[in-house]
Amino acid sequence: xxxxxxxxxxxxxxxxxxxxxDQRFGPRRRHPCQNRCVKxxxxxxxxNEEKSIEAVIADAREHVPGADIMVVDDGSTxxxxxxxxxxxxxxxxxxxxxxVGAAHQTAYIFxxxxxxxxxxxxxxDGQHPASEVARLIAAVENGADLAVGSxxxxxxxxGVPEYRSTFARRLGQRLFSLLxxxxxxxxxxxxxxGMRALNVRAMELFAERYSSEFAEVESLxxxxxxxxxxxxxxxxxxxxxxxxSFITPLTSAFYIFKTLIVxxxxxxxxxxxxx
Length: 275
Ligand SMILES: Nc1nc2c(ncn2[C@@H]2O[C@H](COP(=O)(O)OP(=O)(O)OP(=O)(O)O)[C@@H](O)[C@H]2O)c(=O)[nH]1
Ligand SMILES: [Mg+2]
Fold this sequence. Notes:
Blueprint: E1 2-3, E2 18-19, H1 21-24, E3 40-46, H2 53-63, E4 68-73, H3 80-86, E5 90-93, H4 100-113, E6 118-121, H5 130-141, E7 146-150, H6 167-184, E8 196-199, H7 200-208, H8 215-225, E9 230-234, H9 249-268
Parallel strand pairs: 3-4, 3-6, 4-5, 7-9
Antiparallel strand pairs: 1-2, 6-8, 7-8
Helix pairs in contact: 2-5, 4-7, 6-8, 6-9, 8-9
The structure holds guanosine-5'-triphosphate (GTP) and magnesium ion.
């Protein structure tokens, strides 16, 4: 039985067909990376990141050798796609801005279509050192379906100044951690982290359904409820150097409220795989 299913972003909705989850999630596939080269994609969601995109691409190339690098340009109105192309990255340009979830989902769909086995992702604003993403990819090679970089996990930043954010965002982070950890019965300390690595099982899940707005938080709940192995890895992240944060105290508060509703609804959805 096959079905076409999408909700959330419009990325590739009309094009993909996936088998039913019961057929998809067969026995766990591990990566036999000892004896052959695993096909890897590192992708960078970017919306108007012309000041940092070239450095981010160079960093990814240096620290994840052998991986293809793709920038998902989320309807940028600056020179982001042009600079990314000039740096030798693959560039997928969305026709208009759709939110970071659509950019992620575009990359998952692309990766599946082109037989990538592992996908690493880092932000285009320079906050995510590619050396840390390489550690997440290693976690997936060692058996995790989804590895998430946590800037708040205990041993994340030995000798490095603690990652700082606004009060409202810290409050939101705490709340999301509490809710996601309770709903999944697994401890998560950084539910909004966009620094991740995934294998095919996780990409298939998210290619089918992925929220454009609540991408990071909801996807953790979704992955655990689908029976995937989700691992948090302590990482070091940097403060944004260029460009504007799109997040204000008011939008944070509204986002927290909306995310609570989304998590509650997620909790009511039937589990895809018995755990
Ligand atoms: N906010 C936002 N970011 C997008 C969008 N589309 C792609 N992105 C990219 O997604 C990544 C994460 O967005 P950020 O705004 O940096 O989110 P954040 O890291 O949680 O917030 P900051 O700490 O303020 O930087 C960046 O590389 C953006 O360029 C979008 O529609 N909105
Ligand atoms: Mg950022």
